[in-house]
Amino acid sequence: MTIFGRILDGEIPCHAVYEDEHVLAFLDVGPLSLGHTLVIPRERVARLDELSDDAAAAIGRALPRLCRAVMRATGATDYNVLQNNGAGAHQAVMHVHFHIIPKLGDRGLGLRWDAGSLENGPELAERIRTALR
Q1: pLDDT tier for residue 116 given thresholds of 50, 70 and 90
Q2: Cβ contact 25:66 at 8 Å
Q3: Is 90 a catalytic residue?
Q4: Which of 22, 36, 95, 97 is the catalytic position?
Q5: Quick one: which of 36, 79, 114, 125 could link to 31 by a disulfide (CB 3.0–4.6 Å)?
């Protein structure tokens, strides 16, 4: 069981800011900035691609509302929403979760973006379209 499962079970307390039947949002105990909030589904799966459509829709409804609330509460005008899948992609807790990270001065998420070039675009796009069918 993950730490988020233990929070959902009430074994570990959290500073909840929002909850409904599908979603729980709470303050991160190791915040990158003031208001750093975690948004998790109550459905216990590790990766976004494993999440049911209903749980994904619930997260999709809650996330923009939570972003607006965090921005109003902190006074931030900029923020990042971060979501990682798998240890190789820097996921530390194997339960789907989204970070809302306000950017306040030099506090917030830092990142490096090493852009490559798009090769085989038409072929790759067709492979993704085929995978969607």
Answers
A1: confident
A2: yes
A3: no
A4: 97
A5: 36
